[in-house]
């Protein structure tokens, strides 16, 4: 669709070489779950002479291993908790449900961004550069900033091909709010023809509308400390993810009702041991530390191969291997 639209608008020359066009449509690293590439970014790369480059190989391999680490070590380990609790939320207490909701936020990020890292890395080893799809979204200080960091290729796709053609923010505040609502309702439907996805999109649309109505004060949550704004944004995103993950709207409502109903605190009944849960927490802390301090880290040349070997070994030793496919393969 993006190719057809860009050619129609005159922003991309029609590709006369069927091989180049087929390569654009079928480019396997990002074929299944993105990033959703524009023709302007990749067509010229398919036409240039590719020479072997050690830097491309090292960077690509490291991204692939880091993406695999996020998927099999972090995301699939957290799935042991989230899958069990979300399967029967009516039997769980509020504490267990809250832990499952928090862990699912991390799980879906590591699962999807892990795939994107593998896709970018695979392409990079061959000399191709795809767009970055995630930029530490859970460090966002507002919902608008979250969507500038999360699934960037999809959010910009809806911006350029739906939001702006409908008028964007050029026709007054009321029309802008309607446009935002339509875009996020469509985003929900893009994930699946299910009311839970529609509600998930509606929640984010409403949050963005509230942000716009309130102006800069809402956008930045006033003058609150940065860590508090991050925590508030993460909480709102996590609550919305409940509709995304729950098996049905009724299950999601049941979970939210459990959070809102006052009750004596009870210890969580988790499907994993305390030691395993502590290991999950350590992995999450390591993830956030790495993404905050070293977001673009690649080992130096002298230490690259030992570092890659150690990282690969950790994936093998700590990974949870089974039938867990990437979450976004279903959309």
Structural key phrases:
2 domains, 14 helices
How would you describe what is shown here?
By secondary structure, the protein is mostly helical. It folds into two domains: 2-47, no CATH class; 54-141 and 221-330, no CATH class. Helices cover 68% and strands 0% of the residues. Mean pLDDT is 90; it is low at 216-220.
What is the strand content?
A: under 5%
Number of helices: 14
Number of beta strands: 0
Gap between N and C termini = 17 Å
The residue ranges in which pLDDT falls below 50 over 5 or more consecutive positions are: 216-220
Which of globular, elongated, flat, extended, rod-shaped describes the shape? Answer: globular
Structural class category: mainly alpha
Total number of distinct structural domains:
2
* Topology pattern, helix = H, strand = E: HHHHHHHHHHHHHH
What's the topology here?
Layout (H helix, E strand, L loop, with lengths): L1 H8 L8 H9 L12 H9 L6 H34 L6 H32 L17 H7 L2 H12 L8 H20 L3 H20 L1 H4 L6 H20 L3 H12 L13 H20 L7 H18 L13
Helix pairs in contact: 2-3, 4-5, 4-13, 4-14, 5-11, 7-8, 8-9, 9-11, 11-12
In short:
The chain is mainly α. It has helices spanning 2-9, 18-26, 39-47, 54-87, 94-125, 143-149, 152-163, 172-191, 195-214, 216-219, 226-245, 249-260, 274-293, 301-318.
């Amino acid at each position: 669709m993006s190719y057809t639209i860009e050619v129609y608008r005159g922003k991309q020359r029609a590709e006369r070489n069927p091989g180049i066009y087929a390569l654009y449509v079928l480019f396997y690293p990002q074929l299944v779950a993105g990033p959703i590439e524009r023709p302007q970014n990749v067509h010229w790369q398919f036409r240039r002479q590719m020479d072997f480059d050690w830097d491309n190989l090292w960077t690509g391999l490291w991204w692939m291993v880091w993406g695999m680490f996020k998927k099999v070590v972090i995301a699939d380990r957290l799935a042991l908790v989230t899958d069990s609790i979300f399967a029967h939320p009516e039997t769980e207490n509020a504490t267990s449900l809250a832990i499952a909701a928090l862990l699912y936020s991390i799980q879906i990020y590591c699962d999807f961004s892990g795939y994107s890292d593998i896709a970018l890395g695979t392409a990079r080893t061959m000399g191709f550069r795809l767009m970055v799809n995630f930029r530490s979204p859970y460090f966002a200080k507002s919902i608008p900033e979250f969507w500038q960091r999360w699934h960037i290729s999809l959010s910009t796709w809806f911006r350029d091909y739906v939001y702006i053609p409908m008028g964007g923010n050029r026709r007054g505040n009321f029309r802008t709010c309607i446009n935002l609502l339509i875009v996020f309702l469509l985003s929900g439907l893009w994930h699946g023809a299910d009311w839970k996805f529609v509600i998930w999109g509606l929640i984010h649309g409403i949050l963005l509308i509230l942000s716009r109505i309130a102006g800069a004060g809402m956008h930045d949550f006033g003058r609150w400390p940065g860590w508090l704004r991050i925590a508030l944004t993460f909480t709102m995103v996590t609550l919305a993810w409940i509709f995304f993950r729950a098996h049905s709207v009724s299950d999601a409502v049941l979970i939210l009702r459990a959070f809102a109903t006052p009750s004596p605190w009870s210890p969580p009944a988790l499907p994993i041991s305390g030691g395993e849960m502590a290991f999950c927490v350590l992995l999450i802390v390591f993830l956030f530390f790495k993404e905050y301090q070293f977001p673009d880290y690649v080992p130096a040349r002298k230490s690259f191969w030992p570092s890659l070997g150690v990282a690969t070994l950790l994936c093998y030793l700590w990974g949870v291997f089974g039938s867990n496919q990437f979450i976004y393969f279903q959309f």
